[in-house]
């Protein structure tokens, strides 16, 4: 059995003619990454805030 091309790129440049990629360099991907990072930062800030609040109450 013959296998195809398995080289997968992480980010596809607009001028490349390949179908093996994870992300494209376009506006939709940039907005998605921005939203994802923003939510992640809010979660991290929430965890840090709750840990400092609950540990200071126990003392």
Task: Provide a compact summary of the structure.
This protein has one helix spanning 27-58, and strands spanning 9-12, 21-24. The chain has 59 residues and is α+β, with helices and mostly antiparallel strands.
Describe the fold and architecture.
The chain is an alpha+beta fold. It has one domain. It has one helix and two strands; from the N terminus they run ββα. The protein has a two-stranded parallel ribbon. The longest helix is centred in the C-terminal third of the chain and has 32 residues, at 27-58. The N and C termini lie far apart (66 Å). 0% of the residues are buried. The model has no long low-confidence stretch (mean pLDDT 82). The chain crosses the membrane at residues 31-54. Keywords: Membrane, Transmembrane, Transmembrane helix.
- Secondary-structure element sequence? EEH
Number of strands: 2
Total domains = 1
Mean pLDDT: 82
Structural class, by secondary structure, is: alpha+beta
Radius of gyration, in angstroms, nearest whole number: 21 Å
What is the rounded distance between the termini? 66 Å
Q: Work out the helicity level.
A: 40-55%
Biggest sheet strand line-up: 1-2
Instruction: Quickly count the helices.
Output: 1
